[in-house]
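Contributing new complexes? Match this layout with nicotinamide-adenine-dinucleotide.
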Amino acid sequence: MLKGKTALVTGSTSGIGLGIAKCLAAQGANIVLNGFGDVDGPKAEIAALGVQVAYHGADMSKPAEIEDMMKFAAAQFGQVDILVNNAGIQHVARIENFPVEKWDAIIAINLSSAFHATRLALPAMLAANNGKGWGRIINVASIHGLVGSAEKSAYVAAKHGIVGLTKVTALENATTGVTCNAICPGWVLTPLVQKQVDARAEAAGISNELATQQLLGEKEPSLQFTTPEELGALAVFFCSAAGNNVRGVAWNMDGGWTAQ
Ligand code: NAD
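Output block (do not edit by hand):
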């Protein structure tokens, strides 16, 4: 379905980003990976799906590096057709104790990076398909783009911000073939959440298993994690022809978290 298209997924060396990249690659899209840590493993996993894969190590908190990454992607594959703004970090603390540098980093990586990648991707998307435009911008927000949780001020502010950015991006391009939508996962067991499980287990002196059950039980009626593969399938739907007129939605995959 996506043969000949190129998808750039930020923060795709791990977790949700890697899961989405694999689902898009399985549909035939060439992939530009980004993120820190092990690169060879994720690259090999994508290449095994029979598509071309490239990597750029831009730090998503740095606009100049994002600009360099977008130029690199265009040089490698012609242009970016699908942009998945996924890179994100978390820090948990009450507002009066929240480190200022953590606030700045979360706003830069979880919110401003999506603005920069989007503004740089849009011109080529709007010119595609003989000027009629074709493009998909998918913002990985969170259930925290829709509701709050204590001790997550920067994260909740950034995620509410990215849901707003999604709506404006969708509206500004509503008469074109470029759509923009957000995905709002509840709990997904990635390194980002494993850190929160570990902290909970240590603070309460309980097992990892019990801490996991408590974490899910507090918020998520299904008592189960959403998987990167399920989120990837939603991204593939947004990229399909059936998604042509899906514009500006923030779609929960949250085990009933916000139905309460
Ligand atoms: P993760 O820690 O597994 O992956 C984060 C990715 O972002 C990694 O590839 C990491 O290298 C990259 N990254 C971090 N800082 C970066 C930077 N400055 N520049 C470039 N790359 C950077 O986390 P995840 O859970 O897969 O999170 C991915 C996205 O999903 C985030 O935006 C997160 O807020 C969102 N999300 C996660 C959950 C969850 O439960 N895990 C729920 C809702 C939303």
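Reviewers usually confirm one structural detail per submission. For this one: Residues 100-127 form the longest helix (28 residues).
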